[in-house]
Design goal:
single chain; 6-stranded antiparallel β-sheet
């Protein structure tokens, strides 16, 4: 048995002005979902995204799913939140201000488990024209940082609003530091990404030329459309995909594990891409040359510059 005056202070009942939750020991929770959705809807609309080639604007928050709460345990605050947010954008290019293009911005994983830098945001466009992809690129480069700035404002206001009244003061407490709470989100373990060696090794990497032939029971124009249309590529790969089918446009498949750039596009005839796997050395690409022949004839795929050790991965 502990001596008089040496007991664990957590178990000592003291007089409190509210007579509840002694030493803030018990878990208390406040629902912040409704407040969060209202605030997010107000700060994510009417964002102007301007560039040299065009102007875009967020016009509507289409949908917000998820929840948020503030929690007190042992005198410390923890904020739990998880949202998926879909926003509509509209814009036009400088060269063609009368033609409107629309699309969406989707915040996939706004969560206390991730820092804002690691939140995934996907930008889509409804049209497949060159102007639409120019505006999509503008939203990716300048719109995503703007959306993340607004999300940072939301998180700051969430902690300010729901910190009040969560940790109850002790009677006759004159030291404000006694009621300071930990408003830092739940820590996440750092992800260790293995360093990728530069391709400037000082020696030559052995490569091989790989040629494959595939036959599709369809026409060249339909096959070309399937290989260059973002929605069809998503369905074909059963995964997220970024497809910008114009010269210099980017593509990304399977969460960025395959990515590169379009080099040549000949309608219904040829698709040439700079193509690489995520784990390849920096700056190393293979040239993927797809030749589309007459209906019911093979599609030829030629990869020039595939590393000998990675040939199975490219097929």
């Amino acid at each position: 048995m502990a001596k008089w005056g040496q007991g664990d202070p957590r178990w000592i009942v003291e007089e409190r002005a509210d007579a509840t939750n002694v030493n803030n020991w018990h878990w208390t929770e406040r629902n912040a979902t409704g407040w969060s959705k209202n605030l997010l809807e107000s700060i994510l609309v009417d964002l102007m995204i301007e560039g040299e080639l065009g102007t875009c604007k967020t016009t509507k928050v289409i949908e917000i799913t998820g929840d948020a709460s503030a929690n007190n345990r042992k005198g410390k605050l923890f904020f739990f939140y998880e949202f998926v947010i879909k926003i509509k954008w509209s814009g036009h290019t400088i060269t063609d201000p009368d033609t409107k293009c629309t699309g969406t911005i989707e915040v996939v994983n706004l969560s206390d488990e991730y820092d804002l830098d690691n939140v995934d945001i996907v930008v889509e466009t409804k049209k497949t024209t060159k102007e639409a992809y120019v505006l999509k690129d503008l939203v990716i480069k300048r719109g995503i940082p703007l959306v993340k700035e607004q999300l940072a404002i939301y998180l700051k206001k969430l902690k300010e609003e729901f910190s009040q009244g969560m940790v109850l003061p002790r009677q006759n407490s004159s030291n404000p530091s006694e009621n300071v709470v930990n408003t830092k989100p739940v820590a996440t373990l750092p992800v260790q990404v293995p360093a990728v060696k530069s391709s400037n090794h000082g020696y030559k990497i052995a490569t091989k030329k790989l040629t494959l032939s595939e036959e599709f029971k369809t026409t060249c124009d339909d096959l070309y459309f399937t290989l260059t249309n973002p929605e069809r590529v998503k369905a074909f790969t059963d995964n997220t995909a970024i497809v910008e089918p114009y010269k210099g446009g980017k593509f990304s498949l399977f969460n960025g594990n395959i990515h590169g750039q379009y080099v040549i596009l000949e309608q219904n005839k040829k698709i040439v891409q700079k193509w690489r796997l995520k784990g390849w050395p920096d700056g190393m690409f293979t040239i993927l040359n797809r030749l589309l022949s007459l209906p019911y004839r093979p599609l030829l795929r030629g990869n020039n510059g595939v590393t000998g050790t990675r040939r199975p991965d490219t097929t």
